[in-house]
Amino acid sequence: MDKRANPAPGFQRNPDKVITIEPYRGTVTVRAGDAVIARSTRARQLSEPPYPAVFYIPFDDIDFDKLARTRHSTHCPYKGDASYWSVLPAGESGKDAMWTYEQPFDEVLEIRDHGAFYTSKVTVEAKPD
Q1: How far is CA 35 from CA 17, 22, 29, 64, in A?
Q2: How far apart (Å, rounded) are the C-alpha atoms in residues 50 and 43?
Q3: pLDDT the model gives residue 2
Q4: What's the average pLDDT block by block, 10 residues per block, for the chain (129 residues)?
Q5: d(CA 51, CA 6)
Q6: How is residue 48 annotated by DSSP?
Q7: Rounded distance between C-alpha atoms, residue 22 and residue 107, angstroms
Q8: What is this structure's pTM?
């Protein structure tokens, strides 16, 4: 049996939970007003029913000069501890608009070094190929 180094306790308690992570075939752009915060052709789409799908964008495709790390954090029993970043060009509405799982659990390692954005705080556009 394959032993994981950092298993998700959520999956241990609820083995029927399904989270899928797939490459998005297209371009994902994140904007705050006219400012482009991120643009990627290498985004991953995470699906976790019943929640809406979320795009995770590689760090290399995010303009961190337009972000500021905050002290906010949350915990997901399936993904791990999330850290947050504010989107500076969005002003107060951009507070904690991006989250990352810097040390995700083994089952979702594909989102490591990726950021996701709240669509209620910034504009996230996805254009399929």
Answers
A1: 37, 27, 10, 12
A2: 21
A3: 55
A4: 77 94 98 97 97 97 98 98 98 97 96 98 97
A5: 24
A6: -
A7: 13
A8: 0.94
Distance CA 129, CA 25 (A): 6
- Tell me the HSE value of 73 on the side-chain side, using a 13 A CA sphere: 10
pLDDT at 6: 87
Residue 30: exposed, middle, or buried by beta-carbon count in 10 A (0-12, 13-18, 19+)?
Answer: buried
Task: Give the gyration radius of the chain's Cα atoms.
Answer: 15
Torsion angles phi and psi, residue 104, rounded to 5: -70, 160
Phi, psi of 66 (to 5 degrees): -100, 10
Paired tokens of 114: 């990726």
Q: What is the CB-side half-sphere exposure of residue 79 using CA atoms within 13 A?
A: 24
Burial class of residue 115 in the structure, from the number of CB atoms within 10 Å of its CB (0-12 exposed, 13-18 middle, 19+ buried): buried
Domains present along the chain, CATH in parentheses? 9-128 (2.170.150.40)
The answer to whether residues 28 and 40 touch, using CB atoms and an 8 Å cutoff, is: yes
